[in-house]
Design a protein that fits this description.
By secondary structure, this protein is mainly beta. It contains 5 helices and 24 strands. Strands 1, 6, 18, 19, 20, 21, 22, 23 and 24 form a 9-stranded antiparallel sheet that branches. The radius of gyration is 19 Å and the shape is globular. The two termini are 27 Å apart. The model has no long low-confidence stretch (mean pLDDT 95). Bound molecules: zinc ion. Zinc ion binds next to loops. The site of zinc ion (ZN) has 4 residues, from loops.
Length: 293
Amino acid sequence: MLNSKIILLEPVLKTMIWGTESWGISAHPNGDCKVVSGPYQGYTLSSLWDEHRELFGDVKMQQFPLLTKVIDAKQDLSIQVHPDDAYANTNENGSLGKTECWYIMDCEPETTIVIGHHATTHEELEDMIKTGRWDELIREIPVKKGDFFQINPGCVHAIKGGTTILETQQNSDITYRLYDYDRLQDGQLRPLHIRQSMDVITVPFDAASVNAVSKKSGWLEQLIACDYYRVWKGVLCGEETLSLDAPFVLGSVIDGEVMIDKMSIKKGMHFIIPSGVTDVQLKGNGELIFSTL
Ligand code: ZN
């Protein structure tokens, strides 16, 4: 582990009513990860971003732009939607909007997820919400391990129980809850955000918007390239070299164990390859998700 240039982070674990979240790479105030070892040990990712911007290729953005988390859903998550940058900036104290994407790490047989809705006009959407016709409104599709979905702002979505995903997203924690199955938390219904949801939901839903076209080259597969991030999956069997054209790279081991620049990284661990570290050698057997701007 000595002399490795890889920045290993300690995930922030969160217990939710429906399961757990592990914020693996986050500089968000609601879960700011700490560096585990090396010269920056003890720094939070936000302080590293503020004080050592050279590690991130001197990118000129006020906040660390991305957030990687693993969501392990034992029960269904609330049906929700996120705003875009413009709406969040105006209505949420200058926050960023939230574009996110999901890599399905694991799921039980016959599992589904909620992506999109069936309303054809805003009037129909409002009517279905106000009269609680959730079964008619909500679009549910089957999922399997290895599936990948892009969730743009305005896209109604929810992960169902029995699913583990790795989510790469903008650094934002703004969620509008549309429907929570009338569940109680500590004897209370969790607040809904019906007005904001109706403001931001895209009508009609565009099914093509969630299906990214993946591009394979050798051991790496690019899952998506959008305005906010690019994401790759890597399947490592033996030795490979990673050379991505990016100011810095976020990485997560989602299966197996991998040696990266003298550091052993196991499933569930997350790291940053800082600026200037190119042609990184990887060794071992495992699966990884990489992301960058
Ligand atoms: Zn979401």
